Each structure stands twice: as C-alpha cells, then as structure tokens.
Amino acid sequence: MSKLLRALALVSAVAIAGVPMPAPSLELQSIQRAAASYQNPNPHLQEMFRAALLDTGKLAQYAPDGTAYIKTGDIPAEWLRDASAQARPYLFFAKDDPDTRALLRAIIARMAKYLQIDPYANAFTFDYRVWEEKFELDSLAYPITLSWSYWKTTGDTSIFTPEFQKALDAVLATMQREQDHPRNSRYTHKELADDGKGRPTGYTGMIWTGFRPSDDACYYNFLIPSEMFAVVALGDMAEIERTVYHNVVKASEATALRDEVQRGIQTYGLVLVPKYGYIYAYEVDGLGHAILTDDANIPSLLSAPYIGYTVPNDRYYENTRRFLLSQDNPSFYQGTVAQGIGSFHTPDHWIWPLALIMQGLTASSEAEKQDVLKQLLASDPGDHLLHESFDPNDPKRFTRQDFGWPNALFSEFVMTQFQGVSEIPMGDTSDLEFRSE
Asked: Alpha-carbon distance 181 to 209, whole Å?
C-alpha cells in the first residue's frame, strides 16, 4: 500500500471512530531528502532552509474525502492564497516523485470545491465551512496559476476534472460580474466603506475587489497587483479550457476578459511621477484617484515579474521598483537590522519577510540578492523560521508565531537564486500589449 493510501486509510478510520483527526507531518521522501542533503558553509542558512522546506509538510494533512488541506499556520483555516503559495515549492519535486504529485493533486481538488462553495470567500475550515468572506481577487487567481504550473511542470492533466471545470466556471462568472460591480454585484462586507459597498468607482474594464492580499479592505477597489495577477490567471484559464477541456467558448471569454483587464491596467493604473516617470499605482478608482504605495503581501507591485505579469527590465516596472524601495514609498521602512516593505496590516514600521524575499526574487544583481539573504537571516528570532512581520530594530519582536507562507517562499528563493534550480512560471503573458510612452 502506498504512503498516500495508508494516510487516507488512517484518516478515514479516525474520522469514523469520531476521534478528532490528528495532523501529523507529511513525510514526503523527496522533500525530506532535499532538506537533509542541503549543505551550506553558513550553518544558519542551512538550518533555516531545512526548516523552511519542511514547513508545508507540517501544516498539510489529508482529509477523508481524498483532498488535502493546508492551514495557514497558527490560525485553524486554509486561505486559498496562502495554501497555493505554501504548496508551490513542492512543484520542484513533483515531476519525479509520485507521492508529491498525489499531494498536489489533492490540494488542487480541495480548492476546486472551495471555489464552488463560495467564490467570494478567501478562507475555509477543514470541514469546508467559510472562515472569511472577504472578496479578494487574488484568491480566485491563485488556484488557477497553481494548477497551470502543476500541469506545465508534470504534464499531468488528471487534475482537470469535471469538478475543476465547474470551479473555473465559478471563477470566470464572478470575475465577469465584478467587472461592473455597481450594476451587477450584490456583494457587501461590513469592513468596506459606504455601508459595506465600497467607495464609488468608474468603469475601467478591470475587476472590482473588496480586499487586499493582506485581508485589509481596499481604499480604492481596483487593486493593480491583483489585476495583474488576474491577467495571468485568465491567460492560464484560457489555455486550460482550450487545450484540455476543448471549450473554445470559455477560452474566448477568458481571453476577452484578460485583454479588457490589461487595457484597464495600462490606461488607469499608470501614474506619472516626476522623480520616477510612469509607475504603477497600488489602487485606483477609475475616477482619477490613486494610491502610490505597495504592500508586502503577494501579489504586490514588487512581485509583478514573479507572478508572470511582466519582465524585470520593463521600464514601467523598473520605475515602480525604484519608487517602492525608496523612502518615497509610505510602506518602506528602515531599521538597524533590515529595511524593506511592510504592511498596513501590522505594526507601523515593521517589515515583512515576504517583501524581502520578493525583493530578492526580483533583484537583477547578485549583490542585492546576497544583501536580502543577509537581512532574512538576521530576522530569525531564534527558532530558524520566518514570521509575518518583525521590528527591523529588534527581530525578536514579531507577529505570527507560525506562518507558513514566508517559509515556503524562502525555500523557493534559496533554490532558484542560489542553487541554480530553474524557476517555475505562473503563466505566459508574452503576447500582452503594454502602454508605450
């Protein structure tokens, strides 16, 4: 009997007995070997990489229905965004390891169920209850890009079941509805302005979203990083519909929506700043208002090349990156130990490891990558794990004791930037049209 079948048998037996289900670490041989075999002259880096790579296995568990659940860490729920990112490093091992492929298939199958239950929800419990219904556009995009990346990495199309196609239908219908939120949507949330409806917006072709990837309410409801990610995901969806499901109609709808969102980004999302030239705004409303900043949570403006939206040497991205990593950015903070982007979700002037890692992943020089790595190691409060945010003057002051996402991203950073492992794309946007000055 395979490890997967043994695990499922154990889970089913426990569930039938009525005993609370345990959440043991999933010991995938390829992941365990990669962690154990990693050697580095810097023992601190060696310890942190090993802990980071193994972290997702500690937070994932199989369910009686054959799916797999990944809790975010010290909160007993699964976020579509976090879980997709937490699973991503295992793609590097999936091609050659059937147990890792099985786990990823089970993760994707669960997400397909979530998206059908409530496409406006961002987080769910182990028993499929909605934990939060904060509509975040990126939460719709993440499972699609994870599935596309799994397909392109392994060649395995078995994830594209009729259930998954229903999930794609739910995602596309929701995105199309929210393209004209004031007219078509009934979604409200108590944390949004104007009695839960959000501030006024103009029609832009982009997709309205209520919340940022930080789970904070948007101020203006066209969140440019999430629009960028939606463009990537819609391209992935179109390819899946066309190539796997042979549904030309749905593929055409996804492509048309992608192109409309892209035109909206290029028309409304770029702002001229004398010191930097044209840069991408963080949020806009389509009525002439914009917020110039960024947030550590991904998708972020800083992450645009990483999510597959653009290339690192795109002039608009280069301009934006210079702004984001400067004191002109309201969310850029500097301390004696580290400097980087934080979030309005956590204490003022605290830095997020997620943003530091993203700076390293999008850096063009070896010196900047090494500098980022040095700061990440310095952020370790003593447990060899990365946390949500930390005081850049005293890393022993941090938020979230257990937070899986930055550890998963850190393992990816080390593998791709220092071990020569090829990066795994999230989509192909080479045919996109970008604004010309």
From this structure: 9
